[in-house]
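Sample log: DUF937 domain-containing protein.
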Amino acid sequence: MFEDILQGLIKQAGQSAVVENNEVPNEQNENVMSEIMSGLMGGLSNQANAQGGVGSLLGLLGNSANAQQSSSLMSNPMVASIAQNIIGNIMQKFGMNSNVASGIVANMLPSVLGGLISKTNDPQDSSIDMGGIMNVLSGGKTSGIDFGSILSQGANVMADGKLDMNDLINLASGGGNQSNQGAGGMMGSLLGGLFGKK
């Protein structure tokens, strides 16, 4: 499901950035968009499996303000790193110069991520949720963790858009919400899921 939604967002953003771009030969349109899909999935998966990466992804994808400010997403270090890898791959695989590859990625990535963030945080859109995204990106390591509850319980705690150890401690002690009922269990679920216990 997540991959289908991401692919749809890439095709939508790729219409102007790739298909209507005279610098991209028509026979390479699909391959360039596939490379962007592959690079984005790989970059997000690497982040989900890196030390502290789950928190960074939650901060990026769980913050609905990022959808409204999608143009500023490229200044996020994680997004910038993914973008640089995709740009390098496009240059290498399709022989495009840096300006063309950078233009494609700078045009598409904020739009795709902004759309993903918007869908993820839209309570009216049941096609995707944070748990599904994180499960795919982590290779199943986060299965069973209710990221929606973590984000809603921790809305006050995670005001900086980042999940770090202090935020987890606040969640466990109930500091992120007036009602601390279930926070300890949520913390146990989070840590158990991240480290392989259920």
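Observation: The radius of gyration is 18 Å.
Observation: The longest helix spans residues 98-121.
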